[in-house]
Structure formats: structure tokens, C-alpha cells
């Protein structure tokens, strides 16, 4: 996964949500000033992404034209 095109930092336009997809199929999400607010694992199949938070919460999303649509949020890749 280390060279997968979706690995990296994804951020909402206001910078409040910072969602990092790690190369080991884990993610780390920050919200506002709260770093590591949510953590868990993920799986990418094509453009579809599934999440399993360590607390048991599940979610999904989709990558469309370089944008991640996840749980009502729009996140863009930060270089």
C-alpha cells in the first residue's frame, strides 16, 4: 500500500478535518486542535474506501476526480 495513490493526507477546505491514510492500511483523523481524534483501519477497492474505527464505528467513502467524499465531508489531497 505504500505506493498506493490514495495514501497520504486528506483535508477539508477549512482545514478542520485532517484525515491521514497510512501505508499500513490504518488511518489517523484529526479534528480541529484534537490530534488523533479517530483511528482505525481501512480498505480501498477501486475508488471505494471502507473504514473500521477502533471504537467499532464503520463508514465508507469514494474517491472521485481526486477528491475524497467521506461521511458527508469533502476532503482534498494535501501534498
TrEMBL record:
Gene3D superfamilies: Uncharacterised protein Atu4866, PF11512 (2.40.128.290). InterPro entries: Atu4866-like_sf, Uncharacterised_Atu4866. This is Protein Atu4866. It comes from Halomonas salipaludis.
